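Let us practice reading a record.
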Amino acid sequence: MLAPSRVLRETPARAGGGRDRDALIWKAEDAIKEGSRSFSLASKLFDRPTREQVWLLYAWCRRCDDIADDQHMGGTLGNAKNQEDRVQAIRVLTRRALDGLPTADPAFDGLGVVAAECGITREMVDDVIGGFALDATGWQPRSEGDTMRYCYHVAGAVGVMMARVMGVPGEDFDTYDRACDLGLAFQLANIARDIVEDDAAGRCYLPQEWLAEADLAPGQHARPENRFVLASIMPRMIGMMDQHIAAARYGARKLKFRQRWAVLSAARIYGAIGHKVLARGQNAWDRRVVVSKPAKLGHVAAAFVEALWNRPERPEPMPRWTRDKLQPMKGW
């Protein structure tokens, strides 16, 4: 029998849905260790409070990606059916997390904690979920602007949330723009590295206009016989990545030392991924591009010196694609 309505009680709203914060951080640390070795290393350079919040935010991003693509920790893509339903599930769980209600998923409960502690807004998370929604519809970019809008959703918007976690004041729009630039640079490196893997999953994030200029047909661009021509597109993509990294480095000057060190380390590591793709030419996709652990430690050491001494001047030209142009929602 159903209990009378007078017996039922509403679930009280509490950040994290009532879960123990330390347990959520432990789960989030495991998620970043398994899901992103590059970002895991850089995240350890933050002070402890920031590091824990970064882990919680990463765990939510990773879990959303896995739900949307029916995969585990960014592994092989799963069933392509019902993707729109999975995105809707992400929206529902995220809404509950932000309302302080339990979700039965530690990654979403962790989002509730970090959102409450740092002031992450519904609009910010909706921007990120918009990227999963695009993939669910089978969307592919026609123009450079389309590609960059996708990069904004899946990475630039995450950079904005990371800036909020680092305590950047809401009125410091320039630093938020630079945090967005770093996310855009990361995603450009990811796209360049993963072209063949994405093609195998029926996805292409290169602008169709770029492919047409190179006389490459979408769906054929990643074939082995076309990779010499495909490699000719990479200077353009990695050049854009470099512009956004330079802008992000300029913005990092306003951060606290350990935050600046972590950001500059991540920028160097992801920049190295992009440049390894560029250097390998047509062989870039024969095996997955990785940055070795010794090389990562070298980048961390170089970033330490850069964070201590370098005060970069504003790069010219600044990137063409700005947060203002790419952000679909305003007013947060």
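A brief commentary: Residues 257-280 form the longest helix (24 residues).
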